[in-house]
Amino acid sequence: MTCGNVKSKGRGRGWLCFLLLTGVAPFVLPVGDATPQRGLLQVHRDFTSDPGWEGVNNRVIGENCPTVSQDFGWTPTNYSGGGGGEIGGTIFQSRTPAWYGMALGRPLSFHDRFSASGRIAIIPLEGTVPSGAAYLGFFNSTRQGWRPWNSTAIRITCVRPDRATFGVDAMTALWNGDGYQTEIVIPADGKPHTWRFAYDPDAIPPKEWPDPRLKSYLSHRRQTVDEIFAKAKQAEPGATLEQVQRRLRDAVALGWVAFVPKVRGVFYALLDSRDDRKGCITFQLDDGRQYRDWLPSALHEAPAAMDRFGIFNMQVYHRVARFFVSDLTVNGRKTELSRDPGWDGHGNRCQYVERDFQRQDFGYSETNWAGEQIGEIGGLFSRTEPIDPIHGYYADEVGRLTLDDPISFSGNICFVNGATDGGMFFGYFNAKETMKDITDERGGMPLDGMMGILVDGPTRIGYYFTPLCSPKRDAASEKNGPIFLPTGERHTFSFDYDPRANSGVGRIRMTLDKETFILDLTPPQRAAGATFDRFGLASIRRGGKYVTLYLDDLTYTARRPEDYGPVHHEQQITVVPYPPGGRKYW
To answer: Which residues, other chains included, contact 237 with Cβ-Cβ below 8 Å and sequence gap of 6+?
Structure first.
């Protein structure tokens, strides 16, 4: 190879030329003479050119991608029985936003009272596209998402072509959210139903359970009704399954218990304490049970700006719902739908090829989110089910590092976009452990041989910037760092592991901008040991949604022999059949 006008005859000179061409700047870390620390370098990359890191399933595309035909808004039809004129139609799930809504006089927050009611008809689905969900309610026209930002809305889900369910989601301008799934199930047969939906900002939940015995059978861990019934039989020998089911239905409707339907079964879980809640969302279909959800006080007090009422798509993968709404009253005012009301629309009448699904699309990128110059690493990360084989990483091979080595990395980060229940990992990991098969669908993150930072978090918060240490999964620990939101702003961060701190057990010191967080290792963690051979980005193997973020100007620890010569990997594309519904594993 040549470097300028100099020919390289040896591997060491080739390594030097590579550094000059790529902008990589290694320098020896002053770590003393301890054997485990020999050969450690600090490598700096500004990504002004492709670093040629190793990528495994980090760029995934689909073949035979479907065509989306968004077709909803006002229509002169009368499916919902309101007398002629309604809103609705065919709404596809997609990360491409689509909405149709009435502008409100002023943006609403969770300090305001608001309501809506009307008639709805769920139309049976035809064709090969799996049934999906869409939203009806109050939202922000500039941004939506999955569990949409700045919204309070009914989630209408066609769980099958001939069956529909209802839930409610709410989220603030700070990406923290709440919501619930009702036990309502109706045929998707085109017959009209009435619905009522309201938010009371002053409502406070009752302090006492209507049936205190039921509470003792529940936990925050999800349980089936059979597991709950088994506990009830021990305490109440005369209890019947029907009695326990009725108590559970009452508790779900009162907002005390979460109803969690999954493909593998139906589960119930105890919700967090009612003590720190204010504001109540209610929903009722026909003359059935009225379902309640009590907002955490943090949501009630958080900023929000809902500037539209209407229909918008769920911004995840390729599925479809079809319904129509009439006889509409919003905030106490009847809405005239016998003629076109002239509401605003965005992407609600269009057609395009849908190339997005639950996939990875990250690596080197000629973009400029996180640094001062064009060139960085990052992109789209999807949380995959543990058993899904299409998970991956993009990383530099850093030699063999262990918990006996001082390890650090730092740089710039920009969190661009995120869907609730999304996340990713960056830092040090073991390639073999990261890619190994997992047969337990409840397995997954954290994996063996990981130490770094998680961007992840629960719905009620949004996302944390979290230090993680997982030499072995059963000895893993993490500590919630600062709340980290997808605002598109640039941040600086650092991560330092000192094996001699914490009385020789080890300590992680992490910073985000000016905030500092400490995670002390435990003796079992240190004793478990770990080997890290990669530094970079990895998808999370715990089912969920997506985030988009970028990193730049990275400095990180590596172990290099004196004659090290880098391997430049060509980017590989993983091609898979487009999964029906946009997600193969659930």
So the answer is: none
Torsion of CA 521, 526, 527, 531, to 10 degrees: 140
Identify whether residues 309 and 402 lie together within a single domain: no
pLDDT tens-digit map of 52-104: 999 999 999 999 999 999 999 999 999 999 999 999 999 999 999 999 999 99
Whether 15 is in a domain gets the answer no
Q: Is 71 buried (19+), middle (13-18) or exposed (0-12) by CB count in 10 A? A: middle
Distance (Å) of CA 156 to CA 84, 93, 167, 184, 193? 22, 12, 7, 11, 13
Average pLDDT value for residue range 144-152 = 93
d(CA 448, CA 502): 22
**Tally of CB atoms within 10 A around 274:** 16
375 lies in which domain range? 33-62+357-579
Tell whether 422 is covered by a domain: yes
What value does the mean pLDDT take over residues 257-268?
89
Could you give the CA distance from residue 320 to residue 133 in angstroms, rounded to a whole number? 6
Give dist(CA 403, CA 530) in Å, integer. Answer: 6
Structural domain includes residue 256: no
Geometric angle at alpha carbon 507, from 501 and 512, rounded to 5°: 130
Distance CA 166, CA 183 (A): 8
DSSP state of 148: T
Domains held by the chain: number: 2
For the segment 360-386, the average pLDDT, to the nearest whole number, is: 97
Looking at the structure, tell me whether residues 436 and 461 fall in a common domain.
yes
